[in-house]
Amino acid sequence: MCGIIAYVGRQQALPILINGLKRLEYRGYDSAGVAVMNPNLTIYKKKGKVINLEEHALNNKIDSTIGMGHTRWATHGEPCDRNSHPHLSNKKDLAIIHNGIIENYATLKQELLSKGHVFESDTDSEVLIHFIEDIQENLGCALEEAVRIALTRVTGAYAIVVMSQKNPDMLIAARKSSPLIVGVGKDEFFLASDATPIIQYTKQVVYLKDYEVAVIKNGKLTITDLQNNIHDAYIKELDIELAAIEKGNFEHYMLKEIFEQPKTILDCLRGRLLAEEGKVRLGGLREYIDQLCNAKRIIIIACGTSLNAGMVARYLFQEICRIPVEVEYASEFRYGSPVVRDGDVVIAISQSGETADTLVAIEKAKEMGAIILGICNVVGSSIPRASHAGVYTHAGAEIGVASTKAFTAQLTVLYLIALQVAKEKGTLDNDRFRLLLNELDKIPAKVQTILDNSYLTQSLASLYLDAQNMIYLGRGYNFPIALEGALKIKEISYIHAEGYPAAEMKHGPIALIDEEMPVVFIATKDHTYEKIVSNIQEVKARKGKVIAIVTEGDEMVKSLADHVFEIPETDEILTPLLSVIPLQLFAYYTGVLRGCNVDQPRNLAKSVTVE
What we know:
Elements: E1 3-8, H1 13-24, E2 31-37, E3 41-47, H2 50-57, E4 66-72, E5 87-88, E6 94-102, H3 105-113, H4 124-139, H5 143-153, E7 156-164, E8 167-176, E9 181-185, E10 188-192, E11 204-207, E12 212-217, E13 220-225, E14 230-231, E15 236-237, H6 253-259, H7 261-269, E16 273-274, E17 279-280, H8 289-293, E18 297-302, H9 304-321, E19 325-329, H10 330-333, E20 344-350, H11 356-367, E21 371-376, H12 382-386, E22 389-392, H13 405-425, H14 430-441, H15 443-452, H16 454-464, E23 469-474, H17 479-493, E24 496-501, E25 518-522, H18 529-541, E26 545-551, H19 556-560, E27 563-567, H20 576-593
Parallel strand pairs: 18-19, 18-20, 20-21, 21-22, 23-24, 23-25, 25-26, 26-27
Antiparallel strand pairs: 1-4, 1-10, 2-3, 2-4, 5-6, 6-7, 7-8, 8-12, 9-10, 9-11, 11-15, 12-13, 13-14, 16-17
Helix pairs in contact: 3-4, 4-5, 7-13, 7-15, 9-13, 9-17, 13-14, 15-20, 16-20, 17-20
Pfam families: GATase_6 (PF13522), SIS (PF01380)
Catalytic activity: D-fructose 6-phosphate + L-glutamine = D-glucosamine 6-phosphate + L-glutamate
Subcellular location: Cytoplasm
């Protein structure tokens, strides 16, 4: 959720911090703040976007080569100046920034209040820095030891950075269930929630693991665990270019990422789909392919858009692999007394690889003996490390909060996995297998064809930007795309929308249909086509407005619908990779025309690292 950036070295810290916060703003934009040594420990923080902080901080002359910054997604305490990070300790000589939730903060706060501590915010984070100070004073220990001791007594999730007035060249950082990396430069170090704010300075990074503490002092990096055992700092090279996190010529990141999908899908396929040879090669699953092929059941665990990708996979694995599949909300999995048996495989899907609900769910499944396969976009993130095996999507950095290219990348990987399993099991004859490989190979070009006609969705959005409610309907493989389309329009334009299986409309939602209700049908040519045509007629009979996504050349639905958007023909199994694109564009243009911030929708954040 929240974004963390810190720096110590030979450069001026404030420009690095402000620039870093701008790149991290997709992780939270309720407020922002920085702490620097100037020469005393000085804090500037403001409610709202980073631009508010920048204007405030730049009015002051700041000469400092050490500092830390934070952009907030509010959990404890409303968005306001006093709840913004960084937070000071009781004696004001320690400061903290924090991403996560300290679950036992209330108990700790009462203990500290009884000792005379005075708190200036409603946050759990302020309690933690007071607690660290209290331990240091009572034990007379070094600050890094006080941090380690404090973290053994707190419960919850955290990525923290601590600064000290008495140690003006030192940064202390630690993580548990929230991401934090160390960037290693020449005579300088960076700390950040992800790579986006530091890639322009260094590509050398250390991924901190849970319960690790990093101390940067006197120009040296030391990593320990909470028991003060020294850990090796394994430096890895980032595989990302600065251009990948810039908007380029696009007005918004979301539009850029929608238009990147021909490339990102191709990147997912490259080296894995060998259509001419009739092969799928997924090296990340090599050791576990037998377990996957022999799975008695697959359980897919995910949240949000990733869950919708998993729902498409449910149809896919059951049809071509003949394996029963259940799709579970990660946030509900451990609370539903899950039944996991020997031979079950859990597939966890997450763009960031840090989704807290998904991490907790797979930990529960692992305890019960499941094999965990991860599908993630961010190399080195927590879910791949917690999985037995997995596949990266290679979609590149996704800055827009509403997921687009990550969704189609996840789908692409799921198709590859299912095709490999079906081939290994013999549940798909060779002719059908090769046909699907060839059709999947053509998907990037067909996505490009849809994008070349994006102006049509822009015109359509102008007609419905005043809608208050919408219904999205689909059948089979396109039912999850109806859910995804409804989710996108909600996230980006704040129009209330719901997705349903088309046949379920007459079991309740049809009561909402009138001349003011736009209904979006995914009505491509497949084995349910005649049924969905009947559903369209039911809506038209009640004067509903019909928007339909149809297969190119379809005249039947075109004659019934008020508006259509055509997509190229493909095998019905692969249709979701195409039918979702106009829905992404429609949501984007509707949001823009309604004056919404499509890259940073209200109340949302990119990486949900708290339960």
